[in-house]
Amino acid sequence: MNRTRRFAFAALALFCAVPAAAQDPGELQRKMQEAYDCMTEANGLLSSPETRAAGVETYEKACRLYGEVLAALPEAALPETTRREWTMIAHYNIACARSLQGRSDEAFAALERAIAAGWRDLDHMNKDPDLEPLRGLPRWKQVVGKLEAARNAKLIEAAKRSLARGKLFDYDLEVRTLDGETVRLADLRGKVVIVDYWGTWCAPCREEIPHLVALQKKYRDRLVIVGIAWEHGNAADEDVERVKAFAKEHGIDYPLALASDPAELRKVPGFQGFPTTLFIDRSGTVRAKEVGYRPYPVLEALVEALLAEETPPAPAKKTPPPAREDWF
Length: 328
Known about the structure:
53% helix; 11% strand
């Protein structure tokens, strides 16, 4: 609901420049605001048994107004971005009204139309008290699944576009793992490599770790993941044991190293925060840098895109020049 109020005031500013003769957008804006005001009034009326019937009727009025807006939008003289935004909000708020009226089938139908129109705010949807009556119903998972799929598809597309055509930046890796092995990027040529900078204290890192574990399991023969833990620069025995315990608890079976020197973080230009995940192609070139949590489909899309590229030829071995023969 707060989204709608902010939108209404923004729209007011948007149309200050519209000529006086262009009445249609202004009328639609008025109806959007009136519908929102009805939603707000109905919320208050529903809170009392004595006024519940009036609240249901007020929601009905809001839905009617939103319906009129939706019917007029295709022909309205509006920027396309505004048309899409109003379409999403109208359908979403109809879903809220129908939810609170107890008309779940109509609420779900409106919610799906909002998603089809471009609604992607899953967090808002999951927290909106107006949709609470729907969240315990089986169809809720289906609708949320559609939204997650649509949102992930957009993220995947953006992730693939983010793959640099060439080298993103110079990068080299040589670390000693917690198991005492040495991992060198130069030795991993021919495989896609993920280098994950993370920490046990970092909530988004912890959320993303299971995705990396799943990727390593699925692409084991073609993908190498290296985790570089940063425990605020500490590398005492207790820090090592904490990382090892975390790895055991979460089933991490790829190499882990513990960094204590900030120089390790400075290998990534403009290092911003955790997690920072590098995607390196089979020639050893950094092609993408993702900062922050990413859902599994996005991470997998980047791996798949790199795996789909042709395997670079092995570097030619230098042939020593023939021995010089001196003729006398």
